[in-house]
Design brief:
- This protein is an alpha/beta fold and 81 residues long.
- The protein contains 3 helices and 3 strands; from the N terminus they run E-H-E-H-E-H.
- Strands 2-1-3 form a 3-stranded parallel beta sheet, sandwiched between helices.
- Helix 2 runs parallel beside helix 3.
- It starts with a strand and ends in a 10-residue tail after the last helix.
- The mean pLDDT is 97.
């Protein structure tokens, strides 16, 4: 069985640590981004199975990031929560 990769885009350190700890406990590989620009870059590089995306993040907000990712054929298929 292949391990699922999750991209977590969250600017608050405490939230990142909590979410990462829970997800890793259940066996997921977690990739972390602290702002929208980094989230877009990592989504392109990693091609995760799921993106957990905060709305209120620096550089590019979550709505802008989601629009960008859904308009890109390489990342459009990735579910965003």
């Amino acid at each position: 069985m292949t391990t699922a990769h999750i991209l977590l885009v969250e600017d608050h350190e405490d939230n990142r640590n909590i979410y990462r700890t829970i997800l890793e406990h259940f066996g997921f590989v977690v990739h972390l981004a602290t702002d929208g620009g980094e989230g877009i870059r990592l989504a392109d590089e990693v091609s995760p199975d799921l993106i957990l995306l905060d709305i209120d993040i620096p550089v590019r907000d979550g709505l802008e990031v989601a629009r960008h990712l859904k308009s890109n054929p390489a990342t459009a298929r990735i579910p965003i929560v």
